[in-house]
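quick one if you have a minute, typing this from the bus. below you get a single protein, a line of residues and a line of whole numbers that encode the local backbone shape. could you go over both lines and see whether the tokens make sense for that sequence. anything you notice is useful, everything is just below.
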Amino acid sequence: MNYYYSFVVLFSLQFLLSYIPRLFITTNTNWKIHNRIIGFNTIIIGSNNKAVKLYKDLMSLQKSGGNKFIGFINVNSNNKNLLNKYISHLGDINDIKPVVKTNNVDEVIIAIESSEHEEIGNIINILEELNVAVKVIPDMFDILTGKVKMSSLYSAPLIEISRDKMPTWQENLKRIIDVVVSLSVLVICSPVFIALAIGVKLSSPGTVFYFHERIGRFGKSFTIYKFRSMYLNAESNGPALSCRDDARVTKFGKYMRQLRLDELPQFYNVLIGDMSLVGPRPERQFYIDMIIKKAPHYVHLHRVRPGITSWGQVKYGYAENVVEMIARLKYDILYIKNMSLYVDFKILIYTIKIVLQGRGR
């Protein structure tokens, strides 16, 4: 009897101390949002009839959906910019990045005219690098086919371009696996780290580790760590991709690369959240700029954390030039479109097979 009494008392206390305050906070926040006291910084891409209609529809709602409009971006320079009567003109599509970053934009709504649709690919590619919610105006076909999901009773029907390629529970579990595996490797393989450090030091003069800047999720730069496998000042003449029988690679470095031992320090990058076990390989800005000129869709890779291994690396291997990097890109795009823990495990198994066969480079 005391057990049931204790259970009821503890449950009631938990309910009163957690649910009631939470209910008060969420109710108060919703009231402030609906009354336009607080909101999400929002910009509209588009400046003519559709953009004006969208703005008027959202502003005429009795209860706000949370959008706090700070301005608009025009698509074509010869537009009349009808929206200029209502909100500030912030620039054209070339200014999207600085506008979003400067104004801490949370949401972008694309409301362009039919005549401007040729720019939609360019706009999406730019927005892929930014951590913002992206929505577009649907047509009747989108509504009839069920693409439009109602997220708020008080907002206009819009299609949200989803960035979450994995269910939330899988994404959280993926991060937990990353942390557990990377921490285990760093602890268990510490004697291997010491042996490799000695080998690198004896193989050639220079530092044990190789530090370099790479571009990660949402286009943010981070420092990648590797065991140095090349001679000192190997890139004194500028950035250069490794190739077969690369004279810049030391004998010990070649051995490490065959077994991918030079990449072991990247488990630290995984532990601190810069990278994941599986994801597109991170690249230098120098080569990203070259790739984007020929393949603008490369920016889709910045949706996710880069990885120690990738589907592109498993299926295609190392790239020796920009043409090969673009050819490998399709595998990484395919991975992003089909992300799941199951796919990650398959890639890890193939990677282990490649390492055991000594087919790294």
Observations:
- The chain has 13 helices and ten strands.
- The mean pLDDT is 86.
- The first strand starts at residue 40 and ends at 45.
